[in-house]
Each structure stands twice: as C-alpha cells, then as structure tokens.
C-alpha cells in the first residue's frame, strides 16, 4: 500500500507539486495581466487562492526534492496528517475559487453579454485564468487523494 504513485519524497510526488505550482502561477499571471480584475471579488479570491496553492505546492515540492536528494522517507504519521489537511484545504479552496471565477465569466459572456458590450473587458484572460485554476485543482485533488490513501494505509 505504501508504493502509491505520487507519494511524498518521490519523483511522482514532485511532479504533482510542480504541476500544482505551474498552473497556480499561470492562473495568477493570466489574471494579473487582465486590467480591472480587482473590481470583481471572485477574481480577487481566485488570485488569493492560487497564491496560497502556489506557496503550499512550492514548499512541499522543495521538501520532495530534499527527500529525493538525500533519500529520506517522508512517510511518517505526523507528516502525512499535515500533508492530508493541507492538501484537502488547498484543493477545496482552489475548486471554490475556480468555480466562482468561471461562474462570473459565464455571467459576463452568456447571461449579461458584458463582453460584447464592453470590448475593454478582458474576458478572454478571465477565461484562461479560470481554466488554469481548474487544471491546478486537478493536480491538487489528485495529491489530496494520494495523501488520504497513504494516511489510511499507515
């Protein structure tokens, strides 16, 4: 049971963390390049959530790299408990932020037609940021699932 792909201290775990970080950073960059995103709460929440996700995944990615370099085992009950809680919290926050941002984008484009009426509104960038947030969430959810599975098998 302990040989699950993506467990901490392995190259699979490092790849999951790298994917989380890359897509969170891409979402932040896409949103930050959109002028006026601070006028909408859902987009500010997306940036805050992706910032937290990027910091969490960067920290655990560094820990995975350290464990890989020194061949350390990170499967200890206390560490796994912290990983599970952190991964579950960041996965839930990422999903909520991605859904809220995507909901506002749908409102702008399909319901209120604000994107057609106001060509200055960067709807395409909002869409890209929400899409990257969903991709970040998929990596985060996979990591949370792996960590929960590993904690249950200890």
Query: What's the number of helices?
Result: 5
Mean pLDDT across every amino acid position: 93
Number of domains: 1
The total count of strands amounts to 0
Strand content: under 5%
Keywords: Cell membrane, Glycoprotein, Membrane, Transmembrane, Transmembrane helix
Subcellular location: Cell membrane
Extracellular side: 39-42, 109-130
Subunit structure: Homodimer and heterodimers.
Q: Could you outline the blueprint of secondary structure elements for this entry?
A:
Elements: H1 11-32, H2 41-70, H3 77-111, H4 114-117, H5 123-153
Helix pairs in contact: 1-2, 1-5, 2-3, 2-5, 3-5
Structure description:
The chain contains five helices and no strands. It is mainly alpha-helical and 154 residues long. The chain has one domain (11-153). α2 (41-70) crosses α5 (123-153). The chain is elongated and about 55 Å long. The N and C termini lie close together (9 Å). The model has no long low-confidence stretch (mean pLDDT 93).
What tags apply to this protein structure?
79% helix; 154 residues
Summarize it.
The chain is mostly helical. It has five helices and no strands.
């Amino acid at each position: 049971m302990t040989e699950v792909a993506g467990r901490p201290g392995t190259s699979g775990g490092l790849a999951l963390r790298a994917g989380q970080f890359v897509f969170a950073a891409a979402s932040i960059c896409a949103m930050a390049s959109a002028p006026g995103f601070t006028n909408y709460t859902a987009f500010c929440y997306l940036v805050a959530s992706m910032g937290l996700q990027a910091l969490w995944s960067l920290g655990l990615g560094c820990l995975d790299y350290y464990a890989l370099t020194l061949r350390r085992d990170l499967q200890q009950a206390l560490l796994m408990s912290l990983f599970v809680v952190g991964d579950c919290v960041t996965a839930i926050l990422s999903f909520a932020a991605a859904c809220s941002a995507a909901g506002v984008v749908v409102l702008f484009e399909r319901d209120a037609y604000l994107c057609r009426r106001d060509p200055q509104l960067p709807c395409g960038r909002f869409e890209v940021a929400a899409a990257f947030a969903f991709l970040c969430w998929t990596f985060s959810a996979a990591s949370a699932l792996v960590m929960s599975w590993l904690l249950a098998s200890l």
